[in-house]
Amino acid sequence: MTLHFHPYDSVFVASVRAGGPDDCGNPAEHAVSDGGGNPCRHCLRHIPKGAPMLILAARPFPAPQTYTETGPIFLCADSCAPWSGTGVPEILTTAPDYLLKGYGADHRIVYGTGKVVPADQLPAYAARLLQAPRIAYVDVRSSRNNCFQARITERP
C-alpha cells in the first residue's frame, strides 16, 4: 500500500492568508517562528526560524458535528506550495510519537483505532488502519497537544 499525505486545504489556506476567518471565525494571529515545533500544515515542512507564520483554529472536516475536532495549527504566512511529495513528510519525522485515528466516510471516528505510535511505526499503523473497509482516512495528531498534523489516505 502506498500512503498519500494530504496538506491542509489550499483554498482555506489562501483565504486565511488573505485575512479571512479561521474555523472559529477569527483572523489568524501573526507570529514569528522560533524554528522549533512550528510545522506548516500546508507545505508539511517546519517553518524556518525567523520566518513569519500564522496561528489559527482549524477543523479538518467538511462540517461541524459531534466528532469534529477544532484546534490550533501553524501555517507559513508567506505563500508555500502544498505538499505533493512521496514518503513521510518532514513534519511527521521529528516528534518521538504521534496519535493516529481512523475515520469512516461519514467523518466519524472508528472506535478502537486511536493509538499513540512511535514515529517510525506511523506508516505501518496507518496502512493497517486503511486496510479496514470502514476506514476512509487516518488523521495524524500531536500525541502531546492533540494538534492536527496531516491526513492520510491510500494513494490511488
Describe this structure in words.
This protein is 11% helix and 29% strand. It has helices spanning 10-17, 122-130; strands at 3-6, 29-32, 52-58, 71-76, 97-103, 115-118, 137-142, 148-154. The model has no long low-confidence stretch (mean pLDDT 95). The protein is mainly beta. The strands form 2 sheets. Strands 1-8-7-5-6 form a 5-stranded antiparallel beta sheet, with helices on one face. Strands 2-3-4 form a 3-stranded antiparallel beta sheet, with no helix packed on it. It has 2 helices and 8 strands.
Give the SSE layout.
Blueprint: E1 3-6, H1 10-17, E2 29-32, E3 52-58, E4 71-76, E5 97-103, E6 115-118, H2 122-130, E7 137-142, E8 148-154
Antiparallel strand pairs: 1-8, 2-3, 3-4, 5-6, 5-7, 7-8
Total domain count: 2
- Radius of gyration, Cα only, in angstroms? 15 Å
Percent helix? 10-25%
| Total helical segments | 2
Shape: globular
The low-confidence parts are: none
Order of helices and strands: EHEEEEEHEE
Number of β-strand runs: 8
Mean pLDDT: 95
Q: How much beta, percentage-wise?
A: 25-35%
Largest sheet: number of strands, sense, barrel closure: 5 strands, antiparallel
Distance between the termini: 10 Å
Protein name: DUF1203 domain-containing protein
InterPro entries: DUF1203
Give short descriptive properties of this protein.
single chain, 156 residues, mainly beta, 2 domains, five-stranded antiparallel sheet, three-stranded antiparallel sheet, 2 helices, 8 strands, 11% helix
